[in-house]
Protein backbone atom coordinates (compact mmCIF):
# COMPACT_ATOMS: atom_id res chain seq x y z
CA UNK A 1 0.00 0.00 0.00
CA UNK A 2 1.30 3.49 -0.85
CA UNK A 3 1.97 6.23 1.65
CA UNK A 4 -1.51 7.54 0.78
CA UNK A 5 -3.15 4.69 2.56
CA UNK A 6 -2.83 2.30 5.47
CA UNK A 7 -4.56 -0.46 7.40
CA UNK A 8 -6.29 0.64 10.61
CA UNK A 9 -6.73 -2.03 13.29
CA UNK A 10 -9.35 -1.44 15.99
CA UNK A 11 -10.84 -3.65 18.73
CA UNK A 12 -14.41 -4.49 17.82
CA UNK A 13 -16.73 -2.41 15.67
CA UNK A 14 -15.58 1.04 14.55
CA UNK A 15 -19.18 2.26 14.94
CA UNK A 16 -19.12 2.33 18.76
CA UNK A 17 -20.11 5.65 20.34
CA UNK A 18 -17.17 6.38 22.60
CA UNK A 19 -14.62 9.14 22.15
CA UNK A 20 -11.85 6.86 20.91
CA UNK A 21 -13.99 5.12 18.32
CA UNK A 22 -15.62 8.36 17.16
CA UNK A 23 -12.13 9.82 16.75
CA UNK A 24 -10.96 6.85 14.68
CA UNK A 25 -14.09 6.89 12.51
CA UNK A 26 -13.97 10.64 11.87
CA UNK A 27 -10.28 10.48 10.94
CA UNK A 28 -11.00 7.62 8.54
CA UNK A 29 -13.83 9.59 6.93
CA UNK A 30 -11.63 12.67 6.61
CA UNK A 31 -8.76 10.75 5.05
CA UNK A 32 -11.07 9.04 2.57
CA UNK A 33 -12.41 12.45 1.53
CA UNK A 34 -8.78 13.37 0.84
CA UNK A 35 -8.45 10.35 -1.46
CA UNK A 36 -6.60 8.09 0.99
CA UNK A 37 -7.25 4.37 0.98
CA UNK A 38 -7.90 3.27 4.57
CA UNK A 39 -8.77 -0.37 5.18
CA UNK A 40 -10.30 -1.00 8.60
CA UNK A 41 -9.83 -4.31 10.44
CA UNK A 42 -12.21 -4.91 13.37
CA UNK A 43 -10.74 -7.39 15.84
CA UNK A 44 -12.65 -10.01 17.79
CA UNK A 45 -12.09 -10.77 21.46
CA UNK A 46 -11.77 -8.92 24.76
CA UNK A 47 -9.66 -5.80 25.28
CA UNK A 48 -7.52 -4.27 26.73
CA UNK A 49 -6.52 -7.33 28.78
CA UNK A 50 -6.55 -9.45 25.69
CA UNK A 51 -7.95 -12.98 25.65
CA UNK A 52 -7.00 -15.82 23.31
CA UNK A 53 -9.56 -14.73 20.74
CA UNK A 54 -8.08 -11.22 20.64
CA UNK A 55 -4.55 -12.61 20.32
CA UNK A 56 -5.58 -14.89 17.44
CA UNK A 57 -7.52 -12.11 15.73
CA UNK A 58 -4.63 -9.62 15.75
CA UNK A 59 -2.15 -12.31 14.72
CA UNK A 60 -4.37 -13.27 11.79
CA UNK A 61 -4.72 -9.66 10.59
CA UNK A 62 -1.01 -8.84 10.80
CA UNK A 63 0.04 -12.14 9.20
CA UNK A 64 -2.27 -11.45 6.24
CA UNK A 65 -0.55 -8.17 5.35
CA UNK A 66 2.33 -8.05 2.82
CA UNK A 67 5.78 -6.90 3.86
CA UNK A 68 6.26 -3.12 4.19
CA UNK A 69 2.53 -2.47 4.70
CA UNK A 70 1.65 0.64 6.68
CA UNK A 71 -0.45 -0.24 9.77
CA UNK A 72 -2.00 2.04 12.37
CA UNK A 73 -2.97 0.17 15.54
CA UNK A 74 -5.45 1.65 17.99
CA UNK A 75 -3.89 1.54 21.45
CA UNK A 76 -6.81 -0.33 22.97
CA UNK A 77 -6.10 -3.20 20.58
CA UNK A 78 -2.33 -2.89 20.69
CA UNK A 79 -1.45 -2.29 24.31
CA UNK A 80 -2.25 -5.73 25.63
CA UNK A 81 -0.80 -7.71 22.70
CA UNK A 82 2.92 -7.09 22.28
CA UNK A 83 3.65 -10.61 21.05
CA UNK A 84 1.94 -10.34 17.62
CA UNK A 85 3.51 -6.91 17.15
CA UNK A 86 6.98 -8.27 17.84
CA UNK A 87 6.39 -11.14 15.44
CA UNK A 88 5.58 -8.74 12.58
CA UNK A 89 7.17 -5.46 13.63
CA UNK A 90 10.29 -5.78 11.47
CA UNK A 91 8.43 -6.43 8.21
CA UNK A 92 5.46 -4.05 8.71
CA UNK A 93 5.51 -0.28 9.24
CA UNK A 94 3.54 -0.08 12.48
CA UNK A 95 2.31 3.17 14.04
CA UNK A 96 0.52 3.23 17.39
CA UNK A 97 -2.52 5.42 18.14
CA UNK A 98 -2.82 6.06 21.88
CA UNK A 99 -5.94 7.82 23.13
CA UNK A 100 -5.21 7.16 26.80
CA UNK A 101 -2.53 4.93 28.37
CA UNK A 102 -4.19 1.72 29.51
CA UNK A 103 -2.58 1.71 32.95
CA UNK A 104 -3.98 5.20 33.68
CA UNK A 105 -7.52 3.84 33.80
CA UNK A 106 -9.28 4.48 37.10
CA UNK A 107 -10.20 1.50 39.27
CA UNK A 108 -7.33 -0.85 38.42
CA UNK A 109 -5.57 -2.74 41.18
CA UNK A 110 -1.77 -2.55 41.40
CA UNK A 111 -1.25 -5.87 39.59
CA UNK A 112 -3.49 -4.84 36.69
CA UNK A 113 -1.80 -1.46 36.44
CA UNK A 114 1.68 -2.98 36.41
CA UNK A 115 0.71 -5.64 33.88
CA UNK A 116 -0.92 -3.18 31.48
CA UNK A 117 1.93 -0.67 31.77
CA UNK A 118 4.54 -3.33 31.01
CA UNK A 119 2.54 -4.72 28.12
CA UNK A 120 1.88 -1.30 26.55
CA UNK A 121 5.54 -0.31 26.95
CA UNK A 122 6.52 -3.48 25.11
CA UNK A 123 4.02 -2.82 22.32
CA UNK A 124 5.07 0.81 21.90
CA UNK A 125 8.71 -0.20 21.54
CA UNK A 126 7.81 -1.93 18.27
CA UNK A 127 6.16 1.14 16.73
CA UNK A 128 7.93 3.44 14.30
CA UNK A 129 5.95 6.28 15.78
CA UNK A 130 3.02 6.99 18.06
CA UNK A 131 0.03 9.26 17.43
CA UNK A 132 -1.77 10.78 20.42
CA UNK A 133 -4.70 13.14 20.80
CA UNK A 134 -3.09 15.77 23.05
CA UNK A 135 0.24 17.19 24.12
CA UNK A 136 -0.55 15.97 27.64
CA UNK A 137 -0.69 12.36 26.47
CA UNK A 138 2.45 12.92 24.39
CA UNK A 139 4.36 13.92 27.51
CA UNK A 140 2.91 10.96 29.40
CA UNK A 141 4.49 8.52 26.95
CA UNK A 142 8.00 9.38 28.15
CA UNK A 143 7.22 7.08 31.09
CA UNK A 144 6.79 4.30 28.52
CA UNK A 145 10.21 4.82 26.99
CA UNK A 146 8.87 6.63 23.91
CA UNK A 147 11.07 9.56 22.91
CA UNK A 148 9.37 12.84 21.93
CA UNK A 149 10.84 12.44 18.42
CA UNK A 150 8.59 9.41 17.93
CA UNK A 151 5.35 11.09 19.05
CA UNK A 152 2.97 13.37 17.16
CA UNK A 153 -0.15 14.94 18.66
CA UNK A 154 -3.23 15.02 16.44
CA UNK A 155 -6.09 16.62 18.43
CA UNK A 156 -9.65 15.69 17.48
CA UNK A 157 -11.74 17.85 15.21
CA UNK A 158 -14.60 19.95 16.55
CA UNK A 159 -17.48 20.62 14.20
CA UNK A 160 -19.71 23.71 14.37
CA UNK A 161 -22.93 23.09 16.29
CA UNK A 162 -26.09 25.01 17.08
CA UNK A 163 -26.29 27.01 20.28
CA UNK A 164 -27.81 25.06 23.16
CA UNK A 165 -31.31 26.41 23.67
CA UNK A 166 -31.71 25.18 27.22
CA UNK A 167 -34.75 23.50 28.82
CA UNK A 168 -38.30 24.28 27.74
CA UNK A 169 -39.97 27.23 29.50
CA UNK A 170 -40.88 26.29 33.06
CA UNK A 171 -38.68 23.19 33.06
CA UNK A 172 -35.87 22.84 35.61
CA UNK A 173 -32.22 23.38 34.56
CA UNK A 174 -30.76 20.34 32.84
CA UNK A 175 -27.23 19.11 33.50
CA UNK A 176 -25.77 16.84 30.84
CA UNK A 177 -22.89 14.43 31.39
CA UNK A 178 -21.54 12.60 28.34
CA UNK A 179 -19.19 9.65 28.70
CA UNK A 180 -19.17 5.89 29.13
CA UNK A 181 -20.28 4.92 32.62
CA UNK A 182 -16.91 3.71 33.88
CA UNK A 183 -14.94 4.58 37.03
CA UNK A 184 -12.63 7.05 35.26
CA UNK A 185 -15.53 9.27 34.21
CA UNK A 186 -16.60 9.77 37.84
CA UNK A 187 -20.38 9.65 37.55
CA UNK A 188 -20.47 8.55 41.21
CA UNK A 189 -18.80 11.85 42.14
CA UNK A 190 -21.45 13.76 40.19
CA UNK A 191 -24.24 11.95 42.03
CA UNK A 192 -22.66 12.77 45.40
CA UNK A 193 -22.25 16.39 44.34
CA UNK A 194 -25.89 16.68 43.27
CA UNK A 195 -26.98 15.07 46.55
CA UNK A 196 -25.55 18.20 48.19
CA UNK A 197 -27.86 20.26 45.97
CA UNK A 198 -31.01 18.22 46.48
CA UNK A 199 -33.01 21.29 47.57
CA UNK A 200 -32.32 23.02 44.24
CA UNK A 201 -34.20 22.50 41.01
CA UNK A 202 -32.29 20.45 38.43
CA UNK A 203 -32.44 17.30 36.36
CA UNK A 204 -29.40 15.37 35.10
CA UNK A 205 -28.97 13.24 31.99
CA UNK A 206 -26.00 10.88 31.65
CA UNK A 207 -25.39 9.74 28.07
CA UNK A 208 -22.88 6.97 27.51
CA UNK A 209 -22.45 3.22 27.42
CA UNK A 210 -23.74 1.24 30.38
CA UNK A 211 -22.02 -2.00 29.31
CA UNK A 212 -18.29 -1.22 29.44
CA UNK A 213 -18.03 -1.68 33.21
CA UNK A 214 -21.17 -3.49 34.31
CA UNK A 215 -20.42 -3.45 38.04
CA UNK A 216 -19.73 0.28 38.14
CA UNK A 217 -22.79 1.05 36.00
CA UNK A 218 -24.99 -0.97 38.33
CA UNK A 219 -23.43 0.70 41.38
CA UNK A 220 -24.07 4.25 40.21
CA UNK A 221 -27.63 3.44 39.18
CA UNK A 222 -28.24 2.03 42.66
CA UNK A 223 -26.62 5.18 44.08
CA UNK A 224 -29.20 7.28 42.21
CA UNK A 225 -32.08 5.27 43.65
CA UNK A 226 -30.69 5.44 47.19
CA UNK A 227 -30.30 9.21 46.85
CA UNK A 228 -33.97 9.51 45.91
CA UNK A 229 -33.15 10.82 42.42
CA UNK A 230 -35.03 8.29 40.31
CA UNK A 231 -37.21 11.06 38.80
CA UNK A 232 -34.36 13.55 38.39
CA UNK A 233 -31.44 11.50 37.10
CA UNK A 234 -31.53 9.55 33.82
CA UNK A 235 -29.02 7.13 32.30
CA UNK A 236 -29.84 6.95 28.60
CA UNK A 237 -26.94 4.76 27.40
CA UNK A 238 -25.15 5.21 24.08
CA UNK A 239 -27.04 7.63 21.85
CA UNK A 240 -27.22 8.16 18.13
CA UNK A 241 -25.70 11.48 17.04
CA UNK A 242 -29.06 13.17 16.47
CA UNK A 243 -30.37 12.09 19.88
CA UNK A 244 -27.24 13.33 21.62
CA UNK A 245 -27.53 16.65 19.77
CA UNK A 246 -31.06 17.10 21.16
CA UNK A 247 -29.83 16.34 24.67
CA UNK A 248 -27.08 18.95 24.35
CA UNK A 249 -29.57 21.43 22.92
CA UNK A 250 -31.98 21.13 25.85
CA UNK A 251 -29.28 21.43 28.53
CA UNK A 252 -28.21 24.31 30.76
CA UNK A 253 -24.66 23.19 31.54
CA UNK A 254 -22.25 20.33 30.96
CA UNK A 255 -20.59 18.33 33.74
CA UNK A 256 -17.84 15.73 33.39
CA UNK A 257 -16.12 14.80 36.69
CA UNK A 258 -13.43 12.61 35.08
CA UNK A 259 -10.36 11.58 37.00
CA UNK A 260 -8.31 11.69 33.79
CA UNK A 261 -8.80 12.43 30.10
CA UNK A 262 -6.43 12.00 27.19
CA UNK A 263 -8.31 14.87 25.52
CA UNK A 264 -12.05 14.86 26.26
CA UNK A 265 -14.01 15.20 23.01
CA UNK A 266 -17.33 15.58 24.82
CA UNK A 267 -15.92 18.71 26.45
CA UNK A 268 -15.33 20.45 23.13
CA UNK A 269 -18.72 19.26 21.87
CA UNK A 270 -20.22 21.13 24.82
CA UNK A 271 -18.04 24.20 24.24
CA UNK A 272 -19.12 24.30 20.58
CA UNK A 273 -22.75 24.54 21.74
CA UNK A 274 -22.05 27.41 24.11
CA UNK A 275 -22.58 25.29 27.22
CA UNK A 276 -20.59 26.29 30.30
CA UNK A 277 -18.48 23.36 31.48
CA UNK A 278 -17.91 22.00 34.96
CA UNK A 279 -15.12 19.44 34.96
CA UNK A 280 -11.85 18.59 36.68
CA UNK A 281 -8.13 19.24 36.44
CA UNK A 282 -7.49 15.59 35.52
CA UNK A 283 -5.16 14.78 32.62
CA UNK A 284 -5.55 16.95 29.53
CA UNK A 285 -8.79 18.62 30.65
CA UNK A 286 -7.20 22.00 31.57
CA UNK A 287 -5.81 22.17 28.01
CA UNK A 288 -9.15 21.21 26.47
CA UNK A 289 -11.18 23.61 28.64
CA UNK A 290 -9.19 26.88 28.84
CA UNK A 291 -9.69 29.58 31.46
CA UNK A 292 -12.93 31.46 31.07
CA UNK A 293 -14.92 28.68 29.41
CA UNK A 294 -15.74 26.59 32.48
CA UNK A 295 -14.96 25.77 36.07
CA UNK A 296 -12.45 23.02 36.88
CA UNK A 297 -12.16 21.34 40.27
CA UNK A 298 -9.90 18.61 41.68
CA UNK A 299 -10.87 15.08 40.57
CA UNK A 300 -12.95 13.19 43.10
CA UNK A 301 -13.93 16.32 45.09
CA UNK A 302 -17.73 16.20 45.21
CA UNK A 303 -17.94 19.28 47.47
CA UNK A 304 -15.97 21.41 45.00
CA UNK A 305 -18.02 19.98 42.13
CA UNK A 306 -21.27 20.81 43.93
CA UNK A 307 -20.07 24.36 44.61
CA UNK A 308 -19.23 24.90 40.94
CA UNK A 309 -22.57 23.53 39.74
CA UNK A 310 -24.45 25.60 42.30
CA UNK A 311 -22.65 28.74 41.12
CA UNK A 312 -23.79 28.20 37.56
CA UNK A 313 -27.32 27.20 38.47
CA UNK A 314 -27.79 30.37 40.50
CA UNK A 315 -25.88 32.93 38.42
CA UNK A 316 -27.39 33.36 34.96
CA UNK A 317 -24.91 36.09 34.03
CA UNK A 318 -21.92 33.89 34.89
CA UNK A 319 -23.46 31.05 32.92
CA UNK A 320 -23.99 33.22 29.84
CA UNK A 321 -20.48 34.67 29.97
CA UNK A 322 -18.86 31.25 30.22
CA UNK A 323 -21.10 29.89 27.47
CA UNK A 324 -20.25 32.76 25.11
CA UNK A 325 -16.54 32.36 25.78
CA UNK A 326 -16.86 28.60 25.24
CA UNK A 327 -18.50 29.14 21.87
CA UNK A 328 -15.86 31.65 20.75
CA UNK A 329 -13.05 29.32 21.76
CA UNK A 330 -14.59 26.32 20.00
CA UNK A 331 -14.74 28.32 16.77
CA UNK A 332 -10.91 28.47 16.80
CA UNK A 333 -10.47 24.69 16.98
CA UNK A 334 -9.67 22.54 13.92
CA UNK A 335 -12.52 20.65 12.28
CA UNK A 336 -12.26 16.97 11.32
CA UNK A 337 -10.95 17.71 7.83
CA UNK A 338 -8.09 19.72 9.36
CA UNK A 339 -7.47 16.95 11.90
CA UNK A 340 -7.30 14.43 9.06
CA UNK A 341 -4.67 16.54 7.26
CA UNK A 342 -2.53 16.59 10.43
CA UNK A 343 -3.03 12.84 10.89
CA UNK A 344 -2.05 12.18 7.28
CA UNK A 345 1.13 14.23 7.64
CA UNK A 346 2.19 12.29 10.74
CA UNK A 347 1.43 8.88 9.22
CA UNK A 348 3.36 9.81 6.09
CA UNK A 349 6.32 10.98 8.15
CA UNK A 350 6.44 7.81 10.25
CA UNK A 351 5.88 5.62 7.21
CA UNK A 352 8.92 7.00 5.45
CA UNK A 353 11.22 6.89 8.48
CA UNK A 354 13.47 4.06 9.60
CA UNK A 355 12.41 2.00 12.59
Q: Please give the radius of gyration in angstroms.
A: 21 Å
Global shape: globular
Q: How many strand segments?
A: 12
Widest sheet: strand order? 2-1-3-4-5-6
Structural class: alpha/beta
N- to C-terminal distance: 18 Å
Write down the overall mean pLDDT: 95
Q: Helix and strand string, N-terminal first?
A: EHEHEHHEHEHEEHEHEHEHEHEHHH
Low-confidence segments, given as residue ranges, are: none
Strand portion: 15-25%
Percent of residues in helices: 40-55%
Count of discrete alpha- or pi-helical segments spanning 4 or more residues: 14
What's the story with the biggest beta sheet?
6 strands, parallel
Task: Write out key terms for the chains shown.
six-stranded parallel β-sheet; globular; 14 helices; 355 residues; alpha/beta
Description:
There is one protein chain. The chain has 355 residues and is of the alpha/beta class. Helix content is 42%, strand content 16%. The protein has 14 helices and twelve strands. It has helices at 19-33, 52-64, 75-78, 82-88, 110-126, 135-140, 187-195, 214-226, 241-249, 265-272, 285-288, 302-314, 316-330, 336-352; strands spanning 5-11, 37-43, 70-74, 93-98, 129-132, 151-153, 174-178, 203-207, 233-237, 253-255, 277-280, 294-297. The protein has a six-stranded parallel sheet with strand order 2-1-3-4-5-6. Helix 6 (135-140) links the parallel strand 5 (129-132) and strand 6. Helix 1 (19-33) crosses helix 14 (336-352) and helix 10 crosses helix 13. The radius of gyration is 21 Å and the shape is globular. The model has no long low-confidence stretch (mean pLDDT 95).
Amino acid sequence: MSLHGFHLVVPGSLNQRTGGYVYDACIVDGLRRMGWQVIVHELEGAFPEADETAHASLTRVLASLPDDTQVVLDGLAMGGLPQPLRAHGLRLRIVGLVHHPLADETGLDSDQRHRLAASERDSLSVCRGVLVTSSKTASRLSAYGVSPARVRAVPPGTEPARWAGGPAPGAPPQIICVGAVIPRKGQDVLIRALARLSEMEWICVCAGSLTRHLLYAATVQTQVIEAGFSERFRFVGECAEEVLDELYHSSSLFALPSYDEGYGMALTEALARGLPVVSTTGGAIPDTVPDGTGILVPPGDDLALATAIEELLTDDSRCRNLGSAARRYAETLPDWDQAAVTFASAVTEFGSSAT
